[in-house]
Write a structure and sequence with these properties.
The complex is a heterodimer of chains A (about 375) and B (about 375). Chain A has about 375 residues and is of the alpha+beta class. Helices cover about 40% and strands about 15% of the residues of chain A. Chain B has helices at about 60-70, 85, 105-115, 130-145, 185-190, 200-205, 215-220, 230-235, 265-275, 285-300, 310, 355-360, 370-375; strands at about 25, 30-35, 40-45, 50, 70-75, 80, 90-95, 125-130, 165-170, 175-185, 210-215, 255-260, 315-320, 330, 340-345. In chain B, helix 3 crosses helix 4. The N and C termini of chain B lie far apart (about 50 Å). The chains are: A alpha+beta (about 375), B alpha/beta (about 375).
Amino acid sequence: MTDASGRYAAPTSYRNLSGQEVRGRAFLAEPDDPAAPGAPFRDRILRSTDGPLPGVSPELTQVIQRRLVLPVQADRWRNSDLLDNEIRIGMHLVRVFGDGYGYPAELSRLIGYDIDAEQPFVLLAPYRGEPIEQVVRRLKLEQEQAFEAGLFRAIRLLEVAGVVHGQISPTTTRWDGDEEIVQITDFGHASLVGEPRYATGSAPWSAPEQVAGDGNADARDDVWSAAQVVYFVVTGWVARGAAEPQDPSPRGTALRALLGTAFAPTASARPRSMDLLATLKLTDPWPSGAQTVAPRFTEGQRVFDTKLADKFRDERGRASSQLPRRPPPPPARTRKRGLLGWIGNASLLLSYLLGSTARAGRS
Amino acid sequence: MTTPAQPSFSPARAQPPGPQAAEIRCYICLNIIDTDQITYYQRDDQGQETKLDLSTITDRVQLGEVMRTAVVHCPSGHVLPADCVRYEPPVVVGLVGSRSTGKSTLLATMINEIDKNGLRDYGFRATPLTQDRHEEYRKGHVDPLHRHRQPLANTAPASEAIDFADGVLLIRDRDLRQPVIFFDVGGETFENAADRSEADTTRFIQAFSALLFVVDASRLAAPGGYEDQAFRIVQDRINPKSGEAEEYLDKPAAIVLAKADVLRFEPPVARWLGREDRARKLNPARIREESRDIFAFLYQRNAEWSLTPFDVFKKCTLHVVSATGSNAVKVPSGNSQAGGGEYIRDLRPRRVLEPLLSILAMTGVIGTSEAAQVGR
């Protein structure tokens, strides 16, 4: 479906993040950005010709449209899943940070989507700045520090939201020199903390466990990536494989010292994003934390746990009495004595009480 | 010492002779069938039956052929496939939910996946229980959906719950021949909840060895949500004063959030719908985690009516499934009839066999120690 200029026709409707259909829009489509061969998506700018997009603040009159290229390949659903994931994680980020002025500039922002179109797509707010590939080794010293701070802030925000990007690299990181903001984009491979890792990304940008697809996603996966990106931007050096980059210059050595154990092969050995911010004497960009799970959902989980435990409570009680570790029950003799003892004590108590009543009566 | 001559096969019981089977009941009227005194009949295309004399059949292959179309009668006269009495008592699975909840689409997709050897990794080979029933079912339900991408029309009320929709025989190595039959228990059966007697309610629950309660994610997602009267069949068993089940029923159940693709951007649904079982092994801890998340999700959406089976059935698991992968249907212009049209995308069934696997574990068909933990 092409328009007069031979481009794939611009959409006239999409769904907003509340799931409602927004219809009757008119966009002018720019040409597609150049794409690598085999790339699953095509990106281009859409300019709205009938005013800002409804319900979006700050106002937007243009958006990025990321389209899924069909027909899909041999692994037919992989690219669909990438687009689905952009939507799922994008929606999650908006839920966490709100969809107004409070949404952090450090993270790309989902505006809308349409998965039922002939070429399914998402709409994103225009990106900031330029891909950092274009600023490698060209930042002034103060800008370098601002870059480091900006990237650590960005991954801290991801951690607050419970999102692990998994593929922070020079192609998914942008630098806005005017505002001195680092922006992270492309959430197709991202997960929520704790979800099983799928083998994606490659060394040195993605952490070793991420590349291998081992274990569960951890916020410190992004710490590895951020450290590699910072190192690359400042020194131009890229690590060979899953290792520390080895610029022998004083700059490189100093930077490695700053980043400390950020290059540890396992997530659990790496510092957290807050630790990295602390080395730069910076504070938490989102100190109040964020609710990443609806309270009623957590309540529902508790209800489930309680009900399940109730169902099998009897069995658990019986099972525990059969455990060999428990001492054997006291022999019958002792128990009888105990019973007699109790009766004995009770009668003593009774006689005391009667006596004391009598005594009280007398005095 | 000479061993007495053994017959090369036993017509009434398939090999190998296992422990004496539990009593076998007619799944329609629940009368017990005496398996020691059974008469088999051959049923032809016109429905005419002739008594079978199995002593004249000496060839095992020929016996197998004959048995595939043979039937037996229960004491009330209901006609059952022979394989329902030759092996383990059938697992009778009832799918419960009002019309258009996606039950029929789910069942058609489950049968299709089983036909494509979907249970192989769990140790089962599957063959149709009765050839002609299966062919009819494929022609009427499976092929229109999976070959031609046509949405299934709502199940006609008359065809619900009178006899089973389709059945399979699960075969595991030498030691198991397990019939599984599926009933589509639907809409109209439950529309007049007030008219239904307690006896009726009990019969429905008793007739099945396991129940699959289907919740429609697309109606849940619509403004205002919905409540399915079909679930009242279990609601009636809950003590109104305490809000607790009078006693837990010993048979297994599964609550299935169907058409879950509609809600696939919601975190708990996304987490489980996309999670293909890489290990292809029954994992009771994972099943419990999914049950917990889907329970919490339905609770969060104020759909507690859909959770009542959890209070009634002792072992009850929860699952997300998507039979088709998307809800997008292209209706040809000028066609305003519901049920027409074609799915826009290729069908992508997801996790459709998980509820059945859970039920096979909870009924003991999968007899491993892990399986015994499912539902706990």
